[in-house]
């Protein structure tokens, strides 16, 4: 036999928990930001194969001159423009990275605007350093990047998704 006080206590406890869960859900929704997609009109009509960073590095020879879509962490600094694997369990050295060759022949604009990726906008430049990005471009094995320190280059970058 249940006591009447027990049922009332559970009802009082459920209301605050429900409100707390609702508040947590609303907070998580507000933290979600929209992806920014910068596109170029280069390579329209090309088919891009989506591939994981590890799969590309394991079979790089198979992707020479192939159009791919790949995700990783972009790193830039003086003399550095590289895409590295964003996995915690991978080697992020230059020998396991791609040189990223952005070309003026393929200007990248924020979808639906004429705002360029590398243009000064809203008081600053778009920050992509140390961010996870998705890139589309063509893999070129003969180009090993600055001082030939990289496995290959992704050229003709026609999409950057932040």
Would you spell out the secondary-structure blueprint of this structure?
Elements: H1 4-31, E1 37-39, E2 49-50, H2 53-58, E3 67-77, E4 80-84, E5 98-100, E6 109-110, E7 131-140, E8 152-161
Parallel strand pairs: 2-3, 5-8
Antiparallel strand pairs: 1-6, 1-8, 3-4, 3-7, 4-5, 7-8
* Structural shape: globular
Uncertain spans: none
Tally of helical segments? 2
Proportion of beta-strand residues: 25-35%
The strand line-up of the biggest sheet is 3-4-5-8-7
Average pLDDT metric = 84
Main sheet makeup? 5 strands, mixed, barrel
| Rg of Cα set | 23 Å
Sketch the topology as an H/E string, one letter per element: HEEHEEEEEE
Distance between the termini: 59 Å
Q: What is the strand tally? A: 8
Oligomer kind = single chain
- Category by helix and strand content: alpha+beta
Specify the helix fraction band.
10-25%
């Amino acid at each position: 036999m249940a006591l009447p006080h027990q049922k009332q206590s559970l009802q009082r406890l459920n209301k605050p928990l429900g409100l707390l869960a609702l508040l947590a859900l609303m907070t998580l929704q507000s933290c979600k930001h929209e992806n920014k997609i910068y596109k170029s009109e280069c390579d329209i009509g090309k088919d891009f194969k989506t591939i994981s960073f590890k799969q590309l590095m394991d079979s790089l020879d198979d992707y020479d001159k192939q159009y791919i879509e790949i995700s990783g962490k972009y790193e830039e600094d003086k003399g550095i423009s590289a895409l590295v694997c964003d996995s915690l369990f991978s080697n992020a050295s230059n020998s396991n990275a791609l040189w990223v060759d952005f070309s003026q022949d393929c200007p990248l604009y924020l979808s639906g605007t004429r705002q360029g990726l590398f243009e000064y906008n809203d008081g600053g430049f778009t920050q992509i350093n140390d961010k996870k990005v998705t890139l589309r471009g063509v893999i070129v094995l003969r180009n090993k990047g600055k001082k030939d320190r990289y496995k290959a280059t992704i050229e003709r970058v026609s999409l950057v998704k932040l």
